[in-house]
């Protein structure tokens, strides 16, 4: 049995009825797009319903709703940034070399997953990994550039590679 502070499905329905309009307006002001606002508002309540452990409802339910919506907003903006970077990268390609829309969608989805994985890494690990991958620096060069011992650099890179392998599963 759930405590009276936990959200049950009827409680989520009640939250939806009382706060959906407000949330959608709030999101519309943040995004400037009513369609995206409607989608993110809906996703917010889907997250509430799909929670493995029902979230605890405090005195101000909009705080919980806003917290979830802010996370979705960050994901939305991050996805848009990745998508724009992809479009910028292919803008110079001749028409026959431009990936199909389906392939482009798969590429963007993969890039978003990689970005999310990188964001979960500690900053030092992420920075060393990106220096190694994008600049092609060796362990010794990374050590010299960062002032960290080679063994520490190796541990960071191993951690990042393990995260990549886990993300690929």
Description:
Helices cover about 75% and strands about 0% of the residues. The chain folds into 2 domains: about 10-90, Rna Polymerase Sigma Factor, Chain: A, CATH 1.10.1740; about 95-169, Winged helix-like DNA-binding domain superfamily/Winged helix DNA-binding domain (Arc Repressor Mutant, subunit A), CATH 1.10.10.10. The radius of gyration is 21 Å and the shape is extended. With about 170 residues, it is mainly alpha-helical.
Contiguous runs where pLDDT drops below 50 for at least 5 residues: 1-5
Mean pLDDT: 88
- End-to-end Cα distance: 35 Å
CATH-derived topology of the largest domain: Rna Polymerase Sigma Factor, Chain: A
Describe the SSE topology:
Blueprint: H1 9-31, H2 34-50, H3 61-90, H4 101-120, H5 123-134, H6 139-146, H7 150-168
Helix pairs in contact: 1-2, 1-3, 2-3, 3-4, 4-7, 5-7, 6-7
Summarize, please.
The chain is an all-alpha fold and about 170 residues long. The chain is about 75% helix and about 0% strand.
Notable traits:
Rna Polymerase Sigma Factor, Chain: A, mainly alpha, 2 domains, Arc Repressor Mutant, subunit A
């Amino acid at each position: 049995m759930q405590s009276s502070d936990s959200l049950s499905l009827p409680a989520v329905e009640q939250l939806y009825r009382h706060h959906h309009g407000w949330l959608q307006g709030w999101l519309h002001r943040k995004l400037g797009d009513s369609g995206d606002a409607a989608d993110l508002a809906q996703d917010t309540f889907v997250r509430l319903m799909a929670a493995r452990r029902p979230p605890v409802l405090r005195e101000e339910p909009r705080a919980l709703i806003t917290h979830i919506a802010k996370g979705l907003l960050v994901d939305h903006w991050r996805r848009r940034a990745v998508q724009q970077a992809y479009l910028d990268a292919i803008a110079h390609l001749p028409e026959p070399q431009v990936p199909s829309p389906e392939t482009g969608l798969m590429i963007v989805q993969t890039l978003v997953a990689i970005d999310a994985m990188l964001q979960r890494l500690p900053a030092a690990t992420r920075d060393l990994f990106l220096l190694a991958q994008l600049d092609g620096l060796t362990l010794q060069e990374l050590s010299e550039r960062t002032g960290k011992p080679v063994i520490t650099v190796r541990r960071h890179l191993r951690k990042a590679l393990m995260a990549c392998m886990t993300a690929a599963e």
